[in-house]
Amino acid sequence: MHRGPFRCECGELHDTYDESNDLEPYIHTDGVTCLNESVPGACRHVFRPLARRRGEHLELRSDDDDPELLIHVPFTVAVKVRSLVIVGEPGSSAPAHVRAFVNHDGLDFSDAARLPPVQEWDLAREATVELEYPTLRAKFQNVQSITLHVTANHGGTAEPCATSICYIAFQGEGTANKRGIVDAIYEVQAVPENTGVPGLGMGTADAAGF
């Protein structure tokens, strides 16, 4: 049996990504942000349905000679994340190391350097779109947002260059936690109108003589 986060004990890489568990429909794309991206808003284009993972798309690039990126990804509902897929351009600009923070909004680079990540991965230079990096599942069970801190690319310090990312995806499952809370609050607050009973709907105004 093959084991390991992305390279098994036989030393080979294996494509195991299951599109049926793609979390892309749960990503709040308009809320995705990135620090140090060279083109503002490019970060939103790397999150796509698996069927549109290939072809010509705007890539996410860091500023020249600075490999770091800090990508914040909010979800529309709480999700359980089982794995990460991150694909860079072939060569030295491909991301080499990424750290993940769960349910931390508004992080900057100083915060990311100071705080311990929930998990981090060394990324394969020869990554393909189907190559997944499993998470520590117990730490990714009620995820409202993920912040990915790309700290380095395969150029290293000897060959500094911008980091380039073509595609990012998460695999797992959505939950109804967030939506359920909103629905419960709405049900408590909702009252019928024109009941004529003091304290309910328009009846409150009627009873007060307004």
UniProtKB/TrEMBL annotation:
GO cellular component: cytoplasm
Pfam families for the chain: PITH
Residue span, PITH domain: 12-190
UniProt similarity note: Belongs to the PITHD1 family.
Listed name of the protein: PITH domain-containing protein
Organism: Diacronema lutheri
